[in-house]
Amino acid sequence: MIPAILRFIVLICFVLLVSFAVLYQWGVGWAIVTSVLLLSIPLFYSYMNLARLGRQIQLDALETMALPSGLWEEVFFKLQRLVKNLKQRIRIIEQQHEHFIEAFQASPNGIVMLDENDQIEWCNSIAEDFFGLNFKRDVLQRINFLIRRPEFFQYLNKRSFEEPLLLERMGADSSLSLMVQAFPFGNQRNLLLVQNVTDLQKADSMRRDFVANVSHEMRTPITVLMGFLETLQTLDLEKGQRDQYFDMMMSQAKRMKSLVEDLLTLANLEANSLPAPMNMINTETLMALLRNDAEALSQGKHSFKFEVIDKESLLGDEREILSAFSNLVSNAIRYTPDAGEIDVRWNINSQGQGEFSVRDTGPGIASEHLARLTERFYRVDRSRSRDTGGTGLGLAIVKHIAGRHQAQLLVESMPGKGSTFTLRFPKERLSS
Ligand SMILES: Nc1ncnc2c1ncn2[C@@H]1O[C@H](COP(=O)(O)OP(=O)(O)OP(=O)(O)O)[C@@H](O)[C@H]1O
Ligand SMILES: [Mg+2]
Q1: Which residue puts its alpha carbon closest to atom 17 of ligand 1?
Q2: In a designed cystine with 338, which of 115, 224, 235, 301 is the match (CB 3.0 to 4.6 A)?
Q3: Which residue in 61, 79, 192 sits closest to 130, CA to CA?
Q4: How far is CA 261 from CA 62, 101, 256, 268, 317, in A?
């Protein structure tokens, strides 16, 4: 490549030579005209190239423009290479940026980037949902103007972020518990990580309730037992009275035993997340067993109807199915006053699903209790249920057994009109 200065010297020499030749032939005037004309040719060429460059820059088409010849070719070529390299680097940076954003968006946690004034620089969509933010609208707004909670305000102001902060009753319907922690980075900026701990909090409070309930349920029979034991120790009772005390102690001990047995059954069911086996259960034999138990429990106080409308067998775990069915039947007996009617039936419904239902003419259950019946220890009428020996675990066990058999527990009830408890099994759990 010829250096530019050499080209320039060659050009000037050429113009001078031609101008002298013209001067010699036609005089000064023509020599001046010739030199101006000769000099204006590269000037015009440069002007045209500059104008083309301006146009291409405006169209952002520098990389694709055709290269001119001569000195400008080199300039344009270097310019094109520079622009190509710069654009390539920008593309790489943009891709990396997009990957970061995608990774942050994929996070199950809320992420908010705050600048040195606690203004939102960026947040992911989970954080938008948690705090009701809208990134486009709220960008560069101070976060404590948007999350108006005194404890959050204090947390940010204190500037010691070793411990996370628990924010309760958050979200659109105030149902979320969020764990928030700030992590300082860069120049006095903070990354806010937000974790949804609603389920953990619920599990924690359920565990606390459960321990409180078990202790409460055990305390009553233990206190009664201890009372009788003290009496027996201190007083010299007659045989008849002593036997009566022993009977009462036995009934309290039985109550504790049944509570512990129910708790163990529940624990076993909960520990086993696999579907129940597909053993063939003959529904007619099952109904006969249920009938015997029901009549023994009722002692002639209720009238029963046991019907097997369809002969299809059920596929499941016989012990579990018997336990679930007899829980429903024993509830009907225990909560239906004397002379009440209890209908127990097995049939296939119009959708081909198997239904085991227990209908009684008992007191019925008000609608506000229906959704909570299967909670552990939930009883509609605590005192009445305790009189009947209930601990409130029966329906929780039924629900678990239903889950293991892909069945649904349906309850229809109206106060004063009786209740119908139905277990609905899918077609796959039936065999003809
Ligand atoms: N057929 C029914 N009629 C009226 N109320 C019922 C009936 N079945 C259940 N209930 C109500 O639902 C509550 C929960 O029933 P569940 O079987 O879970 O517990 P329980 O009968 O009190 O005790 P457990 O079955 O553990 O001995 C009962 O306490 C009772 O108030
Ligand atoms: Mg029960």
Answers
A1: 394
A2: 301
A3: 192
A4: 83, 53, 9, 11, 18
- Going from the C-alpha of 187 to that of each of 13, 117, 190, 191, 294, the distances in angstroms are 62, 11, 9, 12, 75
pTM of the model: 0.65
255 lines ligand 1 (CB under 6 A): no
* Tens of pLDDT, residues 93-140: 999 999 999 999 999 999 999 999 999 999 999 999 999 999 999 999
Residue 387: per-residue pLDDT = 61
| For residue 385, pLDDT beyond 60 | no
Q: Which helix (H) or strand (E) holds 278?
A: none
d(CA 357, CA 342): 10
Residue 408: how many other CB atoms lie within 10 Å = 15
Mutate to test the pocket of ligand 1, among 335, 358, 414 (most ligand atoms within 8 A of CB): 335
* pLDDT for residue 240 is more than 60: yes
Alpha-carbon distance of 13 to 334, in angstroms, equals: 123
DSSP β-bridge partners for residue 190: 114, 184
Sequential DSSP letters for 395-428? HHHHHHHHHHTT-EEEEEEETTTEEEEEEEE-GG
Q: Which atom of ligand 1 is nearest to the CA of 386?
A: 22
3-state secondary structure of 298: helix
Beta bridge partners of 306: 344
Mapped onto helix, strand or coil, the DSSP state of residue 27 is coil
E-strand ranges in 46-105 read none
Q: Is the model's pLDDT at 384 over the cut of 70? A: no
| Strand order from edge to edge, sheet including 313-316 | 279-281, 313-316, 430-431
Mean pLDDT of the chain, nearest integer: 91
Average pLDDT over residues 210-217: 86
| Ligand 2 centroid – CA 300 distance (Å) | 20
